[in-house]
C-alpha cells in the first residue's frame, strides 16, 4: 500500500514534516519569548447593546519581539498547542488578564474574557490554576469569562467529561463559560442545552459582508439569537465592523457586540479609558 501511493503521499508527508519542523522552531522561540517577557495582552471592548456601555473586554495575546512588529496569535498559538507550551502560556495570559482587569472591575464593574485552549482544559489541576489567578489578582470569579471552542465539550470520552467537570466547578464560583466562534464547528446543537455554558459568541462569518442575500444571512443570525435566548444564554456578536451590523444585531435582540466598530484590541494602559462613560458611543 505504501509503494502504490508513494508519489501522492510523499509530498504531503514532506509538507507535514515541514510544518512540524516550523512549529517546533516557533515553539522554541516562543518559550524564550515567554521567559524574556516579550508577550503582551491586548484588550478589545465588549459593548452591551442595552445602554451602549463597555461592560467588559476580551484578552488577546500578542508576541512583541524587541524592535519588531507585534505577531498575532494565529501565527504562534498552533505551535504552542502542538508543543504543550500553551499550558504555561495560557497560565501567563490568565494571570496577566486577571491582574489588569482587577482595577477595571473595582472601578467600573467590568469583566474580562480569556481564551482557553483544549490542552489547558485537559490539565488535571486546571481549576486550581484559575483559582490561583483569581486569588493573586483579587478579581472575583464572577468577573471572569472563559472562552472555549465547541469541540472540547462535544463527544463522549474522559476528555470531554473532565472538561465538563472543570467548567462546572468554576461556574460554582461565578466564572462564566462562553462558546467561541459559535456555528463554525461541526457539533450537534443538543450540547447547548446540556452543557455548563452561559454565553454564545456568534462567529463573525455570520454577519452580512455583502449585499447578496441579506435576507438569508439575517435569518441565520436571527435563528442563532433566538435559539440562544430560548436556552437562557447571552449572545455576543463578534466582528461587528459597521453601523449596519450593530443596527441589525440590536433589532434581532443580540445582547452584546464586539468588533472594530466598537474598538480594536489595545494595550492595557489604553484600555483603562475605554470604560469612561463619556468616551462610549
Ligand atoms: P478569537 O477568540 O475569535 O478572537 C477574535 C479575533 O478577531 C481577534 O484576532 C481580534 O483581533 C479579531 N477581531 C476583532 N474584531 C474584529 C473585527 O471587527 N473584524 C475582524 N476581521 N476581526 C476582528 P486575534 O487577536 O488575531 O486572535 C486570533 C485568535 O487567536 C483568537 O480568535 C483566539 O482564538 C486566539 N487567541 C488569542 N489570544 C489567545 C490566548 O490568550 N489563548 C489562546 N488559547 N488563544 C488565543
Ligand atoms: Ca475568543
Ligand atoms: Ca471568536
Ligand atoms: Ca476565531
TrEMBL record:
Coiled-coil zones: none
Top-level taxon: Bacteria
Full protein stretch here: 498 to 778 of 779
Domain EAL: 23-279
Organism of derivation: Dactylosporangium salmoneum
Protein name: Bifunctional diguanylate cyclase/phosphodiesterase
Amino acid at each position: 500500500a505504501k509503494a502504490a501511493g508513494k508519489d501522492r503521499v510523499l509530498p504531503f508527508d514532506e509538507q507535514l514534516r515541514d510544518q512540524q519542523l516550523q512549529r517546533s522552531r516557533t515553539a522554541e522561540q516562543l518559550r524564550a519569548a515567554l521567559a524574556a517577557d516579550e508577550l503582551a495582552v491586548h484588550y478589545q471592548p465588549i459593548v452591551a447593546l442595552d445602554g451602549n456601555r463597555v461592560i467588559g473586554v476580551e484578552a488577546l495575546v500578542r508576541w512583541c519581539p524587541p524592535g519588531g512588529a507585534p505577531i498575532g496569535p494565529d501565527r504562534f498559538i498552533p505551535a504552542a498547542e502542538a508543543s504543550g507550551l500553551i499550558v504555561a502560556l495560557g497560565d501567563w495570559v490568565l494571570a496577566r488578564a486577571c491582574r489588569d482587569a482587577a482595577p477595571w472591575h473595582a472601578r467600573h464593574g467590568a469583566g474580562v474574557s480569556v481564551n482557553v485552549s483544549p490542552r489547558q482544559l485537559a490539565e488535571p489541576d486546571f481549576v486550581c490554576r484559575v483559582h490561583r489567578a483569581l486569588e493573586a489578582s483579587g478579581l472575583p470569579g464572577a468577573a471572569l469569562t472563559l472562552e472555549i471552542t465547541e469541540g472540547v465539550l462535544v463527544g463522549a470520552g474522559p476528555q470531554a467529561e473532565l472538561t465538563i467537570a472543570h467548567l462546572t466547578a468554576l461556574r460554582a464560583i461565578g466564572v462564566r463559560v462562553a462558546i467561541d466562534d459559535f456555528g463554525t464547528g461541526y457539533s450537534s446543537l443538543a450540547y447547548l442545552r446540556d452543557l455548563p455554558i452561559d454565553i454564545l459568541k456568534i462567529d463573525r462569518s455570520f454577519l452580512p459582508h455583502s449585499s447578496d442575500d441579506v435576507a438569508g444571512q439575517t435569518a441565520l443570525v436571527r435563528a442563532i439569537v433566538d435559539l440562544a435566548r430560548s436556552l437562557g444564554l447571552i449572545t455576543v456578536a463578534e466582528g461587528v465592523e459597521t453601523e449596519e451590523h450593530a443596527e441589525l444585531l440590536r433589532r434581532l435582540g443580540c445582547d452584546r457586540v464586539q468588533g472594530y466598530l466598537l474598538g480594536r484590541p489595545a494595550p492595557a494602559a489604553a484600555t483603562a479609558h475605554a470604560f469612561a462613560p463619556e468616551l462610549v458611543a
